[in-house]
Amino acid sequence: MTADALTMDKIVSLARRRGFVFPSSEIYGGLGSAYDYGHYGVLAKNNVKARWLEAMTQERDDIVALDSAIILNPRVWEASGHVAGFTDPLVDCRTCKLRFRADDLASAQCGRKPSKHPGETEECDLTEPRRFNLMFETHLGPMHETADKVYLRPETAQGIFVNFKNVLQLARRTPPFGIAQIGKSFRNEITPGNFLFRTREFEQMEMEYFVPPDEADRWYAYWIEERLGWYTRYGIRPGHLRVREHDADELSHYSKATSDIEYLFPIGWSELEGIANRGDFDLTQHSEHSGTKLEYVGPDGERYTPHVIEPAGGVDRALLAFLVDAYDEEVVAERERVVLRLHPRIAPVKAAVLPLIAKDEQMVSRARSLYEDLRRRHVVEYDDGGAIGRRYRRQDEIGTPFAFTIDEQTLEDDTVTVRDRDSLAQKRISIDSARAWMDDALERPWNTPKAG
Ligand code: GAP
Q1: Number of helical H runs and strand E runs in the chain
Q2: Mean pLDDT throughout 73-94?
Q3: Mean pLDDT computed over 88-98
Q4: pLDDT at 179
Q5: Ligand 1: which residues within 6 Å by Cβ?
Q6: Contact 64, 181 (CB under 8 A)
Q7: Given a cut of 90, is residue 173 above it in pLDDT?
Q8: Which residue of 34, 194, 397, 441 lies most exposed, with the fewest beta carbons within 10 A?
């Protein structure tokens, strides 16, 4: 399906229909731009995180993992510049009482005339822009008045910087080395929206790569390529990805250079992940504010503050891109099918096991024992509900790459059919080899033809 024909509504509807993502607290009328993940959403999101952590740690020798607290000492956020500088300019409209990002009025809609942008009609009465800090505040301790004000972290990165010394000493690392972390972040976004694209509570996957200062440019270019390669390796069409370098006036307060990997979402080209050259900003700031020197001292006494290259992606936004890129509609045997052509290692369920006739005890027994065998290693689903065609369609919609069907011939010669989600080709293999066949299928490079 071509990118311009796919709407976000189709993705939202499939995600809901098949139990990937629900609007949060729906029975109370929901909460703006907050979502809950259902069974398949959890499985797929966990796969995105697992593939990222694998690429960062298991497949390399130079990066270690970390899981830092969400609520840090508030001085961390003073040092990082977030208390003073993590703000968006906002304007209020005195007429429609809505609030807009002052730097993005062109993509906002006037509350009274949705075909116009705020400020375009004479009725609009906008205030002067004010700076609005995006950090959520809360309080430590039971007494609100006397308790310490703390923040829910707006990025996972700072938890990494404040652990730099621990990792340097205890993991015995020498630059270049990295620290990778996945976890929730919170931002009081003025204009959340577009489903999972921009929410106030989301997960990030960030890696801070500490390098000798004179190697920073080289590693910056390296990580842009690495991260692009990760998305295409897991099935995103190269033509739906591009790199956009930030202009000087767009750069965050900490950044010397930033490039966004953009994806062609149904809302147009938008940021999927940012790769930043943060220079020595963070380690220097934390050294000054904490009084603890955060630097590298080599065996010969050479000392320097490493520079940092940071690939920072969003888990939810990446999952949205995987879903969008995988979504397809086609007509097969005069019936329309919706299929998610997800990479098998991202797909929530790897295979379905289907007895052709659910009332046939022998078929059910063979199917159950194949299912028990496969589930020891893989997430597989046993499904005997309804006509076989409907069961295939259900699996297609959640992106299950393979289906094993147990039929009459199985009872005669111990073979099953394997159906390929993308080509719809079916072949017979011996039931005893099904587990090895699956192990192999999930390891093979995967290349499904996608349009566009
Ligand atoms: N530490 C750098 C940093 O946080 P960022 O560009 O603000 O950089 C990194 O965030 C990534 O986190 C984004 O590319 C996006 O994928 C994700 N992200 C940021 N804000 C988000 C939001 N409100 N909702 C969903 N994902 C978000």
Answers
A1: 13, 23
A2: 94
A3: 92
A4: 98
A5: 155, 157, 187, 189, 198-199, 202, 204, 206, 271-274, 310, 312-314, 316-317
A6: no
A7: no
A8: 34
Q: Whose CA is nearest to atom 18 of ligand 1?
A: 314
Rounded to whole angstroms, the Cα distance separating 407 from 429 reads 13
Task: Give pLDDT tens digits for 123-148.
Answer: 999 999 999 999 999 999 877 776 78
Taking a C-beta distance cutoff of 8 angstroms, is the pair 24, 31 a contact?
yes
What is the DSSP code (8-state) at residue 142?
Answer: S
Give distance in angstroms: CA of 74 to centre of ligand 1. 21
Considering the entire predicted model, what is its pTM? 0.95
Residue 425 has pLDDT above 70, yes or no: yes
Query: Cβ(287)–Cβ(274) under 8 Å?
Result: no
Q: Which two tokens stand for residue 101?
A: 């990002």
The whole-number pLDDT of residue 452 equals: 60
Q: 8-17 vs 315-326: helix axis angle to the nearest 10? A: 100
Between the two ends of the chain, the Cα-to-Cα distance in Å is 7
Tallying the residues shown for the chain, one arrives at 452
| Nearest in space to 442 (alpha carbons), one of 51, 14, 15, 41 | 51
Distance CA 377, CA 354 (A): 18
For the chain, how are helix, strand and coil distributed in percent, rounded to 5? 35, 30, 35
Residue 150 has, within 13 A of its CA and on its CB side, a CA count of 12
- Taken in order 126, 132, 137, 143, the sign of the CA dihedral is negative
Phi, psi of 386 (to 5 degrees): 95, 180
Q: Whose CA is nearest to atom 14 of ligand 1?
A: 273
**Mean pLDDT score, 429-439:** 97
* Closest-lying ligand 1 atom to the alpha carbon of residue 199: 24
For residue 305, the model assigns a pLDDT of: 98
Distance CA 303, CA 295 (A): 7
Residue with the two structure tokens 């630059």? 175
Instruction: From 157, 147, 149, 178, select the one nearest 81 (Cα to Cα).
Output: 157
Closest to 206 measured CA to CA, from 66, 316, 67, 311: 311
pLDDT at residue 438 is higher than 70: yes
| Ligand 1 nearest atom to the CA of residue 258, by list position | 6
Q: What is the pLDDT of residues 348-362, one digit of tens each?
A: 999 999 999 999 999
